């Protein structure tokens, strides 16, 4: 690659792989799509919506120089029905390199690719922003991503209250919970 | 002889001790007793000697020593430990507290007259049960370990062996480590006076049929039996022997494809309170012969649909208590309103969320509540999970349900659009119309009740002593308006609310009768716990369970970590701060908070 790349193991895939320091490592495509789907399903949909919405404005002309890339003005979608309207993005090959920090120039941006709900988004982000995004994804907290948040706890509570579920999930009694679970097994 | 030692004994010379001693035993209501004990020292002493029962609403509000010094001759004691939220998974840490050990130690030493013990939501160890059995076994008549945990069937064996005078053994919903079924054998062999045995909802599976049959043979006064899952066909012999039984819950139908077999089950003649686990539509007819005698029906753990509920309740004109899931639906409530005019208590729990698991009709809304209000005029207790609601429904309850003393409504979050929100006017109508209301629960969603509505609750809830409020109000102003009212409110629980710690603290100070406050989920601010300092005052313990991640299983069956927001618990105590905090619970230390 001609420019410095931030290589971050976004979904923790490297834990499952045997150690390899190969820079460009192509995993089995099917398996990793399933893993991506399950990892993304754990993420908060509000978070992803906001990330993708902000990313699409910023990076609609980014093209990572990898191997089999599509040109950026060709729209392509993975065959599954997205739940909401999103601008089309170029499809990219699955690519999960091992964690490696970019020490040369921390401010330089690099592509961050996110697969979500049948669409793909690419963002040019500097390393610190990328780390923020990864931390958020790990925590699965609903937050606006792009700017650093002044009072994360207040925003958290705000989002907690404003999300579709309304608030804390209504709890169910233990005895009833156990009955409903046992009933499924009958 | 007139004994005038007592100052303040009223005009005309006062009352002799003899008279007072004759009258005192007839005064039972704890609030009356409280008033009596405040008149003068002599009356205080007489109350202390003659009081039979004490309920300690929170075990940390006093100490065993204080109890012993005041009420040496106590015959009956009830106390509670963990916050009510402990009945749900993952809200209260398992080791939160509420240990019975210090109390049992004191009971073993001092309370010579104690015959009845009721521990609710507390942690009990086998060693506690062993000590109780050896020190009080000879006189103990009632033992209730109600939603407790921490003990095993070994502890129960000690009780069974030594407590030959036991009339009541109550273990419902307790978490018991099961080693074997010997405890029941001990009980059945050593006891002849047992009237009530309850191990419902305990998951005890090693109970032996021969011990149940032995119990029926030896304990001819057995009136109430509630057990864990046990095939009903095996109990045919038991039911034949236990002819005095009036209440039975539990059992199981493991052969639902052979409903004809269950015709062999003949229930005892006096049975009038019933709950059959996993009962399905095709065996429902076994209760028809005596359905008209039924006063209490537990359908929480049955496998019936909406129509089945209608068919069943129409056969129960004498029904006074019904517990079921929301599968009963509005249609079932309409049937209830038509047929069950004597209904006093109705509890409708939340069924499965998945569409396939429950009847499509299985939802309760304003339609069912309005029918209920108009049809069941004697209703005293309603707890209901609704899918939709209107102000009119609450207005009907306010107009018709004049005996209502306990009302709890939870609005489920399945429907995005609710017919009629906010519920300000309906809540006002219900509270002003139901003058006997003492317990009130309202769990809504953002927009469900405005600040004005929250103010109405304060204004119109004159006699309400306990409340749980979830997701109500819009801002701190609502809470502050609320807290200028509620003159009788002693215990307040709040969940998923939008109030800041500053408002919570100020509200606590304003609520004149408040002695217990629990809050889970509130609006966090940068000043955070410093604002709680506003409510620091003598005898007021403040505890925090900081926000944490709780392992749970989500709808997709995956192990995830849920965010569990902070809890605030504050209560009056004569015993000072607790000394048995687990790691997850922290006392509010003003010095540390100020320094932070």
Number of extended strands of chain A: 2
Succession of helices and strands of chain A: HHEEHHH
Helix content bin of chain B:
25-40%
- As residue ranges, the low-confidence spans of chain A are 16-31, 57-104, 141-167
Structural class of chain A: mainly alpha
Strand content of chain A: 5-15%
Q: Can you give the helix content of chain A as a percent range?
A: 25-40%
**Strand element count of chain B:** 25
> Helix count of chain B?
19
What best-fitting shape of chain B do the alpha-carbon axes yield?
Answer: globular
Largest sheet properties of chain A = 2 strands, antiparallel
Q: Provide the low-confidence segments of chain B as ranges.
A: 1-12
Tell me the radius of gyration of chain A.
19 Å
Biggest interface in this structure?
A-B, 32 and 43 residues
Q: Report the sheet with the most strands of chain B, covering strand number, pairing sense and barrel closure.
A: 21 strands, mixed
Q: How big is the Rg of chain B?
A: 26 Å
Shape verdict of chain A: elongated
Mean of the pLDDT scores of chain A? Answer: 57
User: Could you report the average pLDDT of chain B, rounded to the nearest whole number?
Assistant: 94
GO cellular component, one term (chain B): SCF ubiquitin ligase complex
GO biological process, one term (chain B): SCF-dependent proteasomal ubiquitin-dependent protein catabolic process
Pfam family, one (chain B): F-box_5
Domain Transport inhibitor response (chain B): 73-119
Characterization of this structure:
The complex is a heterodimer of chains A (186) and B (596). By secondary structure, chain A is mostly helical. Chain A contains five helices and two strands; from the N terminus they run H-H-E-E-H-H-H. A two-stranded antiparallel sheet of chain A has the order 1-2. The radius of gyration of chain A is 19 Å and the shape is elongated. Chain B has 596 residues and is α/β, with parallel strands linked by helices. Chain B has 19 helices and 25 strands. In chain B, the strands form three sheets. Chain B has a 21-stranded mixed sheet, with no helix packed on it. The longest helix of chain B has 11 residues. Chain B is globular, with a radius of gyration of 26 Å. Chain B starts with 16 loop residues before the first helix and ends with a helix. Classes of the chains: A mainly alpha (186), B alpha/beta (596). Chains A and B meet through helix 4 and helix 5 of A and loops of B.
């Amino acid at each position: 690659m001609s420019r410095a790349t931030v290589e971050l193991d976004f979904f923790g895939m490297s834990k499952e792989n045997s150690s390899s320091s190969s820079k460009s490592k192509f995993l089995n495509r099917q398996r990793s799509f399933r893993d991506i789907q399950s990892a993304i399903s754990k993420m908060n949909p509000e978070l992803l919506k906001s990330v993708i919405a902000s990313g699409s404005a910023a990076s609609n002309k980014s093209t990572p120089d990898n191997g089999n890339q599509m040109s950026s003005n060709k729209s392509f979608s993975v065959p599954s029905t997205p739940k909401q309207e999103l601008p089309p993005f170029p499809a990219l090959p699955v690519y999960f390199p091992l964690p490696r920090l970019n020490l040369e120039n921390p401010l330089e941006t690099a592509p961050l690719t996110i697969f979500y709900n049948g669409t793909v988004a690419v963002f040019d982000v500097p390393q610190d922003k990328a780390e923020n995004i990864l931390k958020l994804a790990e925590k699965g907290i609903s937050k606006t991503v792009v700017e650093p948040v002044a009072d994360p706890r207040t925003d958290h509570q705000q989002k907690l209250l404003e999300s579709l579920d309304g608030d804390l999930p209504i709890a169910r009694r233990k005895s009833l919970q156990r009955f409903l679970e046992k009933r499924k097994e009958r | 002889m007139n004994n005038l030692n007592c100052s303040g004994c009223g005009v005309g010379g006062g009352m002799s001790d003899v008279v007072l001693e004759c009258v005192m035993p007839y005064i039972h209501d704890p609030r009356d007793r409280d008033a009596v004990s405040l008149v003068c020292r002599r009356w205080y002493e007489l109350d202390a000697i003659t009081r039979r029962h004490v309920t300690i609403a929170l075990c940390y509000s006093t100490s065993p020593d204080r109890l012993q010094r005041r009420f040496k001759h106590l015959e009956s004691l009830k106390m509670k430990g963990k916050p009510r939220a402990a009945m749900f998974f993952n809200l209260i840490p398992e080791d939160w507290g509420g240990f019975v050990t210090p109390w049992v130690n004191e009971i073993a030493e001092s309370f010579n007259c104690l015959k009845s013990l009721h521990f609710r939501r507390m942690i009990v160890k086998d060693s506690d049960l062993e000590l109780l059995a050896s020190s009080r076994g000879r006189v103990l008549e009632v033992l209730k370990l109600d939603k407790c945990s921490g003990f095993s069937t070994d502890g129960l064996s000690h009780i069974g062996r030594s407590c030959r005078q036991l009339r009541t053994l109550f273990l419902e919903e307790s978490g018991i480590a099961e080693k074997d079924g010997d405890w029941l054998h001990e009980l059945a062999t050593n006891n002849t006076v047992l009237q009530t045995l309850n191990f419902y909802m305990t998951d005890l599976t090693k109970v032996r049929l021969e011990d149940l049959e032995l119990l029926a043979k030896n304990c001819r006064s057995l009136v109430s039996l509630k057990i864990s899952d046990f095939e009903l066909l095996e109990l045919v012999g038991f039911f034949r022997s236990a002819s005095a039984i009036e209440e039975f819950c539990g059992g199981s139908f493991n052969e639902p494809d052979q409903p004809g077999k269950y015709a062999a089950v003949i229930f005892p003649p006096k049975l009038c309170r019933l709950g059959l686990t996993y009962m399905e539509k095709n065996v429902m007819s076994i209760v028809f012969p005596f359905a008209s005698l039924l006063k209490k029906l537990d359908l929480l753990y049955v496998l019936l649909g909406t129509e089945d509920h209608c068919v069943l309740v129409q056969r129960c004109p004498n029904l006074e208590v019904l517990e079921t899931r929301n599968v009963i639906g509005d249609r079932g409530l309409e049937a209830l309103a038509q047929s069950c005019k004597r209904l006093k208590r109705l509890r409708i729990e939340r069924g499965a969320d998945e569409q396939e698991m429950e009847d499509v009709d299985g939802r309760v809304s304003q339609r069912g509540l309005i029918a209920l209000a108009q049809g069941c005029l004697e209703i005293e207790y309603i707890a209901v999970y609704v899918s939709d609601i209107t102000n009119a429904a609450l207005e009907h309850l306010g107009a018709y349900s004049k005996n209502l003393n306990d009302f709890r409504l939870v609005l489920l979050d399945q429907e995005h659009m609710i017919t009629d929100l906010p519920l300000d006017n309906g809540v006002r109508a219900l509270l002003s119309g139901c003058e006997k209301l003492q317990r009130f629960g309202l769990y809504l969603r953002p927009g469900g009740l405005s600040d004005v509505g929250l103010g109405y609750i304060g204004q119109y809830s004159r006699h309400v002593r306990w409340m749980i409020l979830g997701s109500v109000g819009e801002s701190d102003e609502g809470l502050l308006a609320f807290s200028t009212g509620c003159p009788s409110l002693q215990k307040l629980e709040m969940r998923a609310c939008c109030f800041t710690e500053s408002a919570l603290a100020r509200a606590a100070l304003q609520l004149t009768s408040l002695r217990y406050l629990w809050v889970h989920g509130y609006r966090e601010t940068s000043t955070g716990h410093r604002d709680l300092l506003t409510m620091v005052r003598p005898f007021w313990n403040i505890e925090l369970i900081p926000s944490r991640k709780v392992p749970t299983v989500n709808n997709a069956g995956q192990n995830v970590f849920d965010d569990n927001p902070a809890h605030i618990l504050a209560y009056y105590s004569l015993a000072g701060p607790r000394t048995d905090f687990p790691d997850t619970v922290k006392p509010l230390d003003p010095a540390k908070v100020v320094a932070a």
